[in-house]
């Protein structure tokens, strides 16, 4: 009976994994089709595969938009960590008046719909001559990811016994030495998972990138809208562009999956 249950659980696991992976598989299959085959409904499973769409998109400069997305994701994540991690450390390990109110204020900034803030942001950045630059997306994404960084890292820091902090202070360690040499190494897995999630959110963001950029600072999500024209949707080309967009995230997630799982199980979803 135990063997049967184990086999059943394994089978269900593989089925669920296939269900989650199937959209990516179908995306890749569609990218190998001719446009006339990709638009057929119901979809055709018999076709002559071709890589011409990948070749065409690469020649059209998809690497430029991928580089823009990478620069924005890395820079915005760095700023969010630079500001958010020390704040999370202070809120987790030190007695600060009304710390719960501060935390709620940070997370409340995520409640407002993005459509409600786009007009003031657009006018602000227009007056600063930052529209259609990577700088505007870096600043917006850093602010967007700050609550995520603060809440996740605070949860990780709260798992550290305060006695370790006190012991380091007794031994003469300064606040910076305690922070960099004791606490950060202890939350390494949580920090990596926070970095990965922040970069993924910045990489995938579409609304701000569409509203605040035109040509020079387009990112991958905005670039993919070029295949939605008045003539119709170019499904095969759009799928090929989507493959280019998801491959870096898949590679990053694959190499950091151990740290990601370990970090998320350390208490990242605690209040």
Features:
271 residues, mainly alpha, MetI-like fold, two-stranded antiparallel ribbon, 14 helices, 72% helix, globular
**What count of helical segments does DSSP give?**
14
CATH level-four homologous superfamily name: MetI-like
Strand content: under 5%
- CATH class equals Mainly Alpha
| Poorly predicted residue ranges | none
Principal-axis shape: globular
Report the CATH topology name: MetI-like fold
GO biological process, one term: transmembrane transport
Subcellular location: Cell membrane
Protein name: Sugar ABC transporter permease
Organism: Pullulanibacillus camelliae
Describe this structure in words.
The protein contains 14 helices and two strands, in the order ααααααααααααββαα. The chain is mostly helical and 271 residues long. It has a single domain (61-264), classed as Orthogonal Bundle (MetI-like fold). A two-stranded antiparallel sheet has the order 1-2. Keywords: Cell membrane, Membrane, Transmembrane, Transmembrane helix, Transport.
Summarize the structure.
This protein is mainly α and 271 residues long.
List the helices and strands and how they pair.
Elements: H1 2-31, H2 35-38, H3 52-59, H4 62-93, H5 99-108, H6 118-127, H7 134-158, H8 162-170, H9 175-186, H10 188-204, H11 207-212, H12 220-223, E1 228-229, E2 232-233, H13 235-255, H14 257-264
Antiparallel strand pairs: 1-2
Helix pairs in contact: 1-13, 4-7, 4-10, 7-10, 8-9, 10-14
